[in-house]
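User: I'll paste a sequence; please echo it back and then give the predicted structure.

Assistant: Echoing your sequence first, then the prediction.
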Amino acid sequence: MRAFVLQDWLTIRGGTNITALIQNEPSWVQLDAFQDVIFWTQVAEVTTGGGTISINYDTSPIKDETLFTAMATQGVSSASLAPTLNKILMASATTPVSKWVRWRITTSTTSTWDMTFRILLVANQQVAFTGPGAWPG
């Protein structure tokens, strides 16, 4: 397994006109050699502004906005600030991990909001298939 920092500590503040924020492209993590991923999300502080805030973990085979799909979504509230684990396992995932992974925040707040968080992830390397009918390579 290998550990990555998807996002180091970051504070984001927004208003009612901001409904989605996407992680900057240079910070996306390339995971094409991995099959399972566990996100460890820590939220140090959040003010929801009377609405909801969610962190989405997206994946895509290439850096094309239309192809990114959410693997998991985590709601964020001030009532639960303990670290949260989200497991995306190849054997059971609706959307398995692809080449690129990023975070995306969505919100439906009615006033200003803010959140301080970081996201770490641990990925399990793909297992090589050997035996009769093995994949070429």
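The chain has a mean pLDDT of 86. The beta strands are 2-14, 20-22, 29-30, 34-47, 53-60, 69-76, 84-88, 100-107, 113-125.
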